[in-house]
Sulfate ABC transporter ATPase (Planomonospora sphaerica), 297 residues
Amino acid sequence: MAVIEVTDLRKRYADLTVLDGVSFSVEEGEIFGILGPNGTGKTTTVECVEGLRRPDGGTIRVLGLDPVEDARRVREQIGVQLQQTQLPENIKVWEALDLYASFYAAPRDWRELLEEWGLADKRNARFGKLSGGQKQRLFIALALVGNPRVAFLDELTTGLDPQARRATWELIKQVRAGGVTVVLVSHFMDEVEELCDRVAVFNRGRVVAIDTPAGLAGGEHRMRFTVMTGEMTGVEGLPGVTGVSREGNRVVVTGTGDFATAVTAHLARHQVLVSDLRIDKRTLEDAFTALTGRSFD
Ligand SMILES: Nc1ncnc2c1ncn2[C@@H]1O[C@H](COP(=O)(O)OP(=O)(O)OP(=O)(O)O)[C@@H](O)[C@H]1O
């Protein structure tokens, strides 16, 4: 069942077209990634879905409801990760959780969230005194305190050290295991690969691809080597090989499946001696660059 359905979403600011017909759906229980270069409309899209901005065209359904017309009922069932500036410096951790819990009809017990997110010993600490990682965990706990069916997380692990990032990923997997659908706006390829069931890649106000991270990366790999001696012929026709390019004695062969074994066996059979052999797997980052024409930053 789709918990979010966005069809032909359009939004302009003055003469700037920010969303130019965005469509996607998010299935119940999945972690859905939103990925794209800066300024391509990711935040605008998510804020329209949350009911915080009014679209100029298209339709949005969140749990079957229109986020503008049924704003209160939508907000009751979603959780949104706050940004740094949205909490006063001197609010205590428990006060923030208690306050946000009060906005919902059936919130979670925030004491449990303190334990789960490793904040129990910080319950009386003031927000302004927390470390970057603790603030981040508090924002996630606040997004979950309303016991939402859908949680929107933005820049989930920005500012966390590698260990804290891994710990956060594990907790987000538990959130999914608990049946919460997660929409994740991220700038980190490793995070998207690790967490997302499916990803929408945005570019210039459109969705240019939607697939699993592995599906986006594609099955094609690259093999590079330098020909030292012998004449290399017939590689193009080998099973799995999709392309061969040559510059002097440097060769790049692309292919799928077990093409590299076929190529090395072929070279050995024809007494072609090679050096500097490397095989690169195409990554999500390569796919991103190919789809958007921009490298990730
Ligand atoms: N309220 C606004 N008024 C005018 N222009 C806006 C407004 N909000 C966003 N924009 C512009 O709309 C475009 C898309 O912004 P948006 O924040 O949706 O992109 P994004 O993909 O989330 O970018 P980032 O990754 O940098 O957060 C940008 O060019 C931005 O400057």
Summary: The chain has ten helices and 13 strands. The radius of gyration is 24 Å. The CA atoms of residues 175 and 182 lie 8 Å apart.
